[in-house]
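User: Hey, my collaborator sent me this sequence without any context and asked if I could get a structure. I don't really work with proteins. Can you help?
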Amino acid sequence: MKDLKPYIEAYISNWRYINGYEDYKWYAIKHFQDTYFVNDLPFGTRIKQSFSKHVNLLDTRRYFPLGVLADVYSSKPKLTEEMITALFDETKPLKDRVVTYMEEFDNTMNQMAEEGFSDWYGRTNLQSFQDAHAISVYLSMRYPRRYYIYKYGIFRDFSNIVGYEIQHSDKVDRYIEFNQLCDVVKKSLLAEIPFISFYDSWLKAHEFDDGNYNLLTQDFIYAVAKYLNHGAYVKTDKKKPIEIDTIQIEAHEFPSIEAKIPKKFNGVKDIDYEEKDRLFRGLGLLGEQWAIIYEQERLKELGITFKVRHSSVCDGDGIGYDILSVEEDGVTPRYIEVKTTTGGVKQPFYYTDNELQFSEQQREHYYVYRVFNFKSATKQADVLIIHGSLKELNGKPISYMVSVKG
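Assistant: No problem. I've predicted the 3D structure and written it out in structure-token form, which is a compact way to encode the shape of the chain:
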């Protein structure tokens, strides 16, 4: 394995930025520890409440181990409690507990299907989602000083980056190997005495407990795999953008943006123009919200404290821009007009005369954020940042305003 020092230095120098996205894990574990041991609550309630701050560690759009766990508990409460209790039993070897839990859970689901639970009857494709990742979350929240949150993709990417060769192909064995690798990595992290001292102060200020530095170690490995080696931003909140691919150019370097004017004037029937306008307005607002979050993250990375203003909402539409931010000096204004499309970057966009005139007046501080490939379900998008006057984009007029005199 390579020397981890350069990666640790990069992690430390970017810690505040990374932690801004990842601190939910500390909150999630603290909440579990504060909730799970309230023994006067029914076991099912304790499980539901103690894992409720997981954010995306357990349930996402296509992965929902916690949801399935709740389903199984609703039908087999005593058996589910026994399975979880056995998984948490530290007197038995880890691999035995994990394998047994997976097998018993699958058997229980099959039994429920035979009994006609929900729409499970007769299905052969039932998924429990009780895999090594889900189990690692359960164990890490129950024993945060002993276990690490595991994802094979993170383990694989980190290993490729630092030159570590994964030894096992079995899924459970790989999870155990990951825990062992974390123990090794942690030793290098703990050698950074000033940072550890700072981290201890941060923990104390937030009333977090990471006494064995397991969560810090897991976070470092995650950061190397996801933050420190490419431009993707992996978010934990569905309201935040995912996988931002940013290109920035000057307006005069950009090719002409031309509207697609039809050559034939054939009539088109049955178009609901009000509904079409409503949808485009909704998409525009979502794109502006996305761009605001993007700006907040950009300033946060620069260490600038500035409240990004949604000007088109706060000050009214028609002022020539949508968002007010600042440049890298933290003082000079950055006026941002957002143009959003679900299509590709070559899709034409439209601008008003107000926007054109304002961009001319503020050409040095005017930006178009062309948000494209926008996916409203996940708030995922790419952005092209165009700096300069709209006039330099060589747009073509496609509509006219006429006043008819009586």
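In plain terms: Strands lie at 246-250, 323-326, 333-340, 366-375, 380-387. You can pass these tokens on to your collaborator as they are.
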